[in-house]
Design goal:
The structure is a single chain. The protein is built from no helices and 29 strands. The protein is mostly beta strands. The strands form seven sheets. Strands 1, 2, 3, 4, 5, 28 and 29 form a seven-stranded antiparallel β-sheet that branches. A four-stranded antiparallel β-sheet has the order 6-7-8-9, with no helix packed on it. The chain has a four-stranded antiparallel β-sheet with strand order 10-11-12-13, with no helix packed on it. A hairpin with a 5-residue loop joins strand 20 and strand 21 (243-249). The radius of gyration is 19 Å and the shape is globular.
Length: 350
């Protein structure tokens, strides 16, 4: 294990887009980078709680890093073979981690200790779960690629203690080649009574329910789609009305058209965002807290990018490769993770 202490560096990039102006607050101009983890584990799912960052990754690994003391608690889950966990959620003092591939394995354990329990297992040659999420009311959801025609959906009505697969005839029926991406554990979002699930591939859509999954509304969106590795890879909602979804073409990461869409009406309609400074393929996107939904951060092929004015202007903050996912600690602090690494970034404004 190698954890680097005190590795701080401030990055000011002259080769990025021109400085962004904002009437409400000075723009973010640079980041200070603190390396929390540098090990052989690919990480696509992180969550923040109890002054700690929790992660799930490859090699059956999960872990927790205390953001104050920097103490690291790694744990290898007792899988029959080394397995990749790309979905992670926290709820009521417990972590929940879900694997990709066959069999699908959903484990849980205490956030403040060691140990785990296998809650759900599903075997099928096509099983592949992409994201895990708890709503504010404590309903657990997991979504994945279809094993037949409908989206694979798991639901827990008791805070994560028990999970069941939604019957095929009660789940959204997907188009041929429509699936999802396990890129950053951010293809499920919720706010109030609404839950959104995002798909990609040959057809990329937003699936919305306002009644806990009794009915689902498919919404077409103007984002890149039509091939296996195109579509929505990540999404976030600032509130019940303002949301953003991002992705593009994984096989053509420098493509800067058709990678971003935005909604102001809770996902009923979506508008494309195409600007020259756009960062290309995006693996993860999040609203910056306390910015009225006008500022975003993304990670993807080009590194860490910053958007203001709801995506009208962009700035490259850090060209670090192979970053997959991000989560905010507060408005000035964000955790980013990727291949063999986790960083804590401090955002600096003029």
């Amino acid at each position: 294990m190698r954890v680097f202490f005190g590795f701080f560096c401030c990055f000011l990039f002259s080769n990025c887009a021109s400085v962004i102006s904002s009437k409400e607050a000075p723009p973010i101009t640079s980041v200070t980078v603190d390396t929390l983890l540098f090990e052989t584990v690919s990480i696509r799912a992180i969550a923040i709680a109890e002054q700690s960052v929790f992660y799930a990754g490859s090699n059956s690994r999960i872990g927790r890093i205390d953001l104050v003391t920097r103490k690291h608690w790694p744990q290898t889950l007792p899988t029959a073979t080394l397995t990749e966990f790309r979905s992670l959620a926290l709820h009521q003092g417990k972590w929940f981690a879900l694997s990709i591939g066959n069999p699908a394995l959903l484990y849980s354990g205490p956030m403040d200790g060691e140990g785990c329990r296998l809650l759900y297992e599903e075997s099928h040659e096509k099983v592949f779960y992409d994201a895990l999420h708890f709503t504010a009311k404590g309903t657990g959801w997991a979504m994945g690629d279809p094993t037949q025609q409908a989206m694979a959906l798991l639901k827990s009505n008791d805070g994560g203690a028990h999970w069941e697969r939604i019957p095929e005839d009660k789940a959204p029926v997907l188009a041929p080649g429509e699936a999802a991406f396990a890129s950053s554990n951010t293809t499920i979002c919720s706010a109030g009574k609404t839950l959104w699930i995002f798909t990609g591939g040959m057809q990329s859509r937003v699936w919305r329910t306002n009644n806990a999954g009794k009915t689902w509304e498919p919404i077409t969106v103007p984002i890149a789609q039509g091939s296996a590795m195109e579509g929505i890879f990540s999404a976030d909602f600032y509130n019940a009305k303002r949301g953003v979804a991002a992705g593009g073409n994984y096989d053509h990461p420098t493509q800067t058209v058709g990678n971003l869409i935005y909604t102001r009406d809770g996902g009923s309609t979506w508008s494309p965002i195409d600007v020259p400074q756009e960062p290309g393929y995006i693996s993860g996107i999040q609203f910056i807290p306390d910015c009225e939904g006008k500022e975003w951060l993304t990670v993807g092929a080009g590194g860490l990018y910053y958007a203001i004015d709801q995506g009208k202007q962009w700035k490259c903050l850090w060209s670090e490769p192979q970053l997959y996912t991000l989560q905010f600690v507060d408005a000035q602090t964000v955790i980013v993770a990727g291949k063999n690494k986790i960083f804590r970034l401090q955002l600096h404004r003029n």
